[in-house]
Design brief:
Number of helices: 4
Distance between the termini: 58 Å
Strand order of the largest sheet: 1-2
Oligomer: single chain
Number of strands: 6
Radius of gyration: 23 Å
Largest sheet: 2 strands, antiparallel
Low-confidence stretches: none
Strand content: 15-25%
Helix content: 25-40%
């Protein structure tokens, strides 16, 4: 009778490589989808989105991010808040083609546009990934 032995190290290595390939493809899809979902005014936010990988070790991962400071406010929205001038005596802005000056503005807040989260959830569903929790990572 023949005896066989399964090489577990080789199975683990093959599994890690398959996971790395899946993450590389899926990460690119998440980046592409988030760029489609990103709201555009000037295009600065959309063009700043980047994809990075950590494919070493036991837990390979990818990250889609941006270095634009206002991205969090677009993604998560804002509550109503007061805006006051910092360097001048009044705020200056245009409304309906007219220039307006004000010492204080009560901003109504902005609704959330969670483009990163939506992109991840959509790609995860399409690829058969389980998304247990979407959490903020700083």
């Amino acid at each position: 009778m023949s005896r066989f032995r399964i090489d577990r190290a080789q199975i683990r290595a093959a599994s890690r490589e398959a996971a790395r390939q899946e993450l590389a493809i899926g990460g690119q899809q998440v980046l592409n989808r988030s760029r489609i979902l990103t709201p555009v005014d000037t295009g600065r936010l959309r063009s700043s989105e980047r994809l990075s990988f950590n494919l070493s070790g036991a837990n390979p991962s990818f990250k889609v991010s941006t270095n634009v400071q206002y991205a969090e406010y677009v993604h998560d929205g804002t509550r109503p808040h007061v805006i006051r001038p910092r360097r001048k005596q009044a705020l200056k802005f245009r409304v309906g083609g007219m220039t307006v000056f004000a010492k204080v503005v009560n901003h109504p807040g902005t609704r959330a546009r969670p483009f990163f989260e939506r992109a991840l959830v959509e790609v995860a569903r399409a690829r058969g990934w389980a998304v247990r929790r979407v959490r903020r990572i700083d």
